[in-house]
Amino acid sequence: MILNKVRKTIKKHRLFDQGDRVLVAVSGGPDSVCLLDVLVKLSREWELTLAVAHFNHKLREEADKEEQFVSRLAGKYGLSFFSGASNVKEIAEKRGLGLEEAARHERYKFLEEVSSREGFSKIALGHTLSDNVETFFMRAVRGASLEGLKGILPKKDHIVRPLIEVTREEIFSYLKKEELLWVEDSSNKDTSFLRNWVRHRLLTLIKERNPSIEETLGATLQGLLWDWLFIEEEVDRALDKMDYRFENGTLYINLSNFDFHEAIKRHALSKLIYRFFYPGRSGVLTAAHIEGVLGIMRELEGSKKFSLPEGIEAVREYNRLRIGPKNEEISEPEVLVTGEGIYPFGDYIFEVKVGDFSNIVTFDKWCAAFDAEKVAFPLLIRYRRPGDRLLIPGVGRKKLQDYFVDEKVPRSERERIPLVLNSKGEVLWIVGYRQRSDLKPEGKRTIYIEARRKR
């Protein structure tokens, strides 16, 4: 029965092409042992070339014995065997990850490395319908969007899951019938892990009311998957129309043309955030995270921010959304300008000259000129501080905070704008924006300052 079911799954989702070279991930547990045996029996129909891969997480005492078991299993079928190992616990602690996430990351990295090095066209994993149902409840408990609730994909790029429509009960029946041995992972009984809690407690209760919950929910998940695939096509069209860019580790989205259906907005936003900040991962963002970002996008005035996992922050700055690592406190030293010369500061290089510049009719925003009779050295270059003001004729002394708000300068940029001040601490020039107009040259002796970005 399983063979026919898997055969239909392969055809329905086009998991294999004729002549595929398939790397089968085998832990030694019941699911992966069943997967390997089934693929060996179906391999002739698709002319598949199979090999076995096993990753040792070094988390349990029996891990080495499990690796030996899988090695013997590969030998039984006459298949090539590839193994890898990492100290997952140490990696999790270093990166601040949970054990499950760190283990998954290291395991997938190993499989991808072997697949690329040895020229495999597909990687087959042993996820089952039971796993899919458990994943649905895990994500529902945490809070998830349609993207999360759709469950585990039968196929994603070159990764395939032939057992995704087979229940764990069917797998045990198959193993018993075929007299196949497997190893038991002792950690699967530890209900401190969310998946095990869902499997052994939540689903046990639900099955008292509906013993066929896996098959019932399997049909629901199939429907959700088709809905999600349709929305994905619409999201891709929307992304082609959106104005966004990713540079220096930060994503910028122009909100002026972000006028889509609410469902498209949610999925487009989620897709971009995952693509640039959590690539190759799932389950990092909850529905609350996406709603939080959409919430600040709906605000019309000023700047708003919302925190995302792992130190990422979304900030709406007028008609722009900026997503990236949270800004750290800037502690750039002051630079004292004592006369003519070159003065590096932050991302800029300042060139200071003194002389007759009356032949220069206009200055761009990266140049400033002051009457040397009104402005004297030393000058100071630094970033803004609370209370800084700029004297504007006819207005008076205006706080830089208010000036930036009026000019709609994004909050993230305000902290990186250099200021040039005199020895009294008065702001003479907001670099790239405005200088004191009452200090412009009237005589022939001028202090000329040019700011250039470092390359």
UniProtKB/TrEMBL annotation:
Chief location category: cytoplasm
GO molecular function: ATP binding; tRNA(Ile)-lysidine synthase activity
Catalytic activity: cytidine(34) in tRNA(Ile2) + L-lysine + ATP = lysidine(34) in tRNA(Ile2) + AMP + diphosphate + H(+)
Subcellular location per the Swiss-Prot or TrEMBL entry: Cytoplasm
EC number: 6.3.4.19
Protein origin, superkingdom: Bacteria
Lysidine-tRNA(Ile) synthetase C-terminal domain mapped to chain residues: 379-449
GO cellular component, one term: cytoplasm
Alphabetized SUPFAM superfamilies for the sequence: Adenine nucleotide alpha hydrolases-like, MesJ substrate recognition domain-like, PheT/TilS domain
GO biological process: tRNA modification
InterPro entries assigned: Lysidine-tRNA-synth_C, Rossmann-like_a/b/a_fold, TilS/TtcA_N, tRNA_Ile_lys_synt, tRNA_Ile_lys_synt_N
Domain comment quoted from the record: The N-terminal region contains the highly conserved SGGXDS motif, predicted to be a P-loop motif involved in ATP binding.
Role, per record: Ligates lysine onto the cytidine present at position 34 of the AUA codon-specific tRNA(Ile) that contains the anticodon CAU, in an ATP-dependent manner. Cytidine is converted to lysidine, thus changing the amino acid specificity of the tRNA from methionine to isoleucine.
Family: Belongs to the tRNA(Ile)-lysidine synthase family.
HAMAP family: tRNA_Ile_lys_synt
Protein name (database record): tRNA(Ile)-lysidine synthase
Native source species: Thermosulfidibacter takaii (strain DSM 17441 / JCM 13301 / NBRC 103674 / ABI70S6)
